[in-house]
Specification:
ABC transporter transmembrane region fold; 10 strands; ATP binding; ABC_transporter-like_ATP-bd; ATP hydrolysis activity
Amino acid sequence: MNTYLRVLGFAKPLGTRVPQYLFFSILYSVFSLGRLALLMPVLKLLFTPDKVSADIVTEPTFDINSPGQYFSDLFNYYFTPYIKQGPLEALEFVCVILFASAMLSSLFRYLSDLILAKISASTHYNLQNATFGKINALELGFFTNERKGDIMSRMTNDMVQVNSTIVSSMTVIFREPILIISYFGALIAISPKLTILALLVLPLSGGLIASIAKRLKKKAKKSQESAGKVTVILEEALSGMRVIKAFNATSFILEKFARETRRFKRLTISIARRRELASPLSEFLGIVIIIGIVLYGGKIILTEQEVGLSGDSFITFIAIFSQILTPAKNISKSMTNIQRGIAAAERIFEVVDSDPKVKDKEGAIKLEAFNNSVEFDNISFAYTDDLVLRNINLKVGKGQTLALVGPSGGGKSTLADLVPRFYDPVDGSVKIDGLPLTAYETDSLRNHMGIVTQESILFNDTVYNNISFGIQNTTQEEVEKAAKIANAHEFIEGLEDGYRTMIGERGSKLSGGQRQRLSIARAVLKNPDILILDEATSALDSESEKLVQNALNNLMKNRTAIVIAHRLSTVQHADKIAVVQNGQIAEEGTHDELMAKNGVYSKLIAMQSL
């Protein structure tokens, strides 16, 4: 119930739309009932025209004790002039009223459904944006532990399921109960005895349906999880298609996909067995009740045990009661949908409720300018339990370049990721201008940083938008200047639409070197105080690497730079070189100082010289 109420909290603004929906639902039920109630005068007019003339009355007065009789007398009062003109004219009058009632009933149903569609769309919009906002607020470690495909499934499949729940729940809460209550009110007015019989038997049907719906939730959650796994496999297959084909692993990935889809199919069928049972079961039980009413009601009429229950009123009673089955069936179907929706909502709220480990603390200040240094003060860090960085102490002054070198897996990229607060250390602190990063607002901190990663992260957009990504009010001249510094302008001009060329998903229409140069151009355009270059030239050919390295050297002048490199020739002129090995600083100094030590650094240089 808490999950359901929480979902409704995203259906804002409910305060104005629910009263509108309720109003239109009431009018819909009134005119739907009126359409059925007109059966009685039509039947009486067709089969007992002589008796109709006897129903002519004077203008009635309302009696709280017999409202049904009041509306019947009111109809007969206005019906009188047409009866005097003849049965055909009376029939025409009833048909006109019937037409108007049907038209208004359809109109108010449309209006209520339209309000419901707005509530549903608002819920989907608010919940989807809240979830996506939380995803973007979470630290990078969250995405290391979670599968991307499963997150995508929660944002798509689960979101659709939750959205259908809102539609179902609104009808269950408002419209269908209003219809049932109004129908039962009419039934009581026609025959209290028959209505009591129906009321005694109908709850049995509701109890059975509720029991079926209750069992659906657990299986529904397993079904949504399985759908998420299918999305995971699909996303991995699409991303790794080159590897799948290169290693002749098509049959393996097909079997893996088929295995999960078989599980999803079994769960879907299992859910369908229960879900689809609800509607025919309620229909069958309704028919059984109608049979009982026909038997009992027929006996009353034949033996004249109840005054006022004539053949035409009995048929009208049956017609109205049969209409109760439709909203009752809709309620039973909605109950099963709601259980599936709640299971999906719980999966979504697992993401929404995730607490970001990296967040601004209360009283955090804005970093207006970078003035002095970046310092790693006794840093230790772990992704899970085992430390990957231990007691790191480093300092780089403003305008200096710190190079991080060493064997792969030593912790160089992890150390660099601590500077923009992608993660927070478990011990110690990273400081800027003497204050720990936690003292600053994270957004203002990152505004002073430019990052070029080993893997080029590009978007399925134009060259221009990829270079100016995240930077407001850029000009063509500024973008072109950044591209020239990154040695990218020449190849961009050669593209079909120049800077307006779409580059495909992850820049798939470009070569590896071209993608990397666009990433560098993006960092150049930001013109940051602190540069973080994680193997920034690794994807370039020798000629491009030389040109881009020269550009980067110019860019790094008067800026603080943290450079991660495996090609040690590119960092020999760094102000400070730190050799990171097994999560610790093995050596530290300039190129000449480290070569003189004849330690790990000199051995790495020797190996690359071979």
